[in-house]
Amino acid sequence: MKQSLVDDTEDVSLDFGNEEELALRTAKIRHPLATFFHLFFRVSAIITYLFCDWFSKSFVACFVTILLLLSFDFWSVKNVTGRLMVGLRWWNQIDEDGKSHWIFEAKKALVIAGISLQTANLYGYIHCKIGIGGQKSITKVTSRFLSQTIFQRECQDEFQKPGLEGMETHKH
Questions:
Q1: Which of 92, 71, 74, 72 is nearest to 82 (CA)?
Q2: Can you tell me the mean pLDDT for 119-136?
Q3: Distance CA 129, CA 123 (A)
């Protein structure tokens, strides 16, 4: 006689009615429809930008189409995919005094990831601005920037805009 894996006295949860939730948990993509539209609007805007001249010679039609696709993308990210995929929520509330307050909600891990990515972006920007491979020091760059700024302020009156030579200028 085979022994059953579950004892008859043990409680077993059958989860009737939660089949959809169970299927979503085991799926590779948790929100396939939201993921589709998240990618669809962005990719469509890029493809439209690249190939719009083939279909229409009207700049206005291309511009409006791309603007609409990016607007749909913004709306879907703000209202659907941002909330479903990463837990972002934000809205505007107006208090009794008529002042507008923006309220943002996000998961803690997302905030930490955002701060770390912004820090890496700032580091890369400063590294590239100073010079490739850090060949220039920050003090040299700062002193050069300050000297250029002071020089431009002091000599601003001596320089004329190009194309205005020989024209009479009046200062009031």
A1: 74
A2: 74
A3: 10
**Confidence at residue 137, expressed as pLDDT on a 0 to 100 scale:** 66
| Residue 92: strand pairing partners | 102
Q: Which residue has the higher pLDDT, 62 or 107?
A: 62
CA separation, residue 24 to residues 21, 27, 28, 33, 87 (Å): 5, 5, 8, 12, 17
List the structure tokens of 145.
Answer: 């920037």
C-alpha distances in Å from residue 158, one per residue of 64, 95, 118: 45, 54, 42
For residue 46, how many other CB atoms are within 10 A of its CB? 13
Helix (H) or strand (E) holding 30: none
Give pTM, 2 decimals. Answer: 0.46
Residue 133 Ramachandran class (φ > 0 left, ψ -120 to 50 alpha, else beta): left
Structure tokens, 158: 């001596």
In this prediction, residue 112 has a pLDDT band, given cuts at 50, 70 and 90, of confident
The distance of Cα 148 from the centroid of its chain, to the nearest Å, equals 34
Indicate the pLDDT class of residue 147, thresholds 50, 70 and 90. Answer: confident
Q: Which two tokens stand for residue 39?
A: 């990618």
Judge whether 37 and 76 are in contact, CB under 8 Å. yes
Strand partners, 105: 89
How many helices and strands, by DSSP H and E, does the chain display? 6, 2
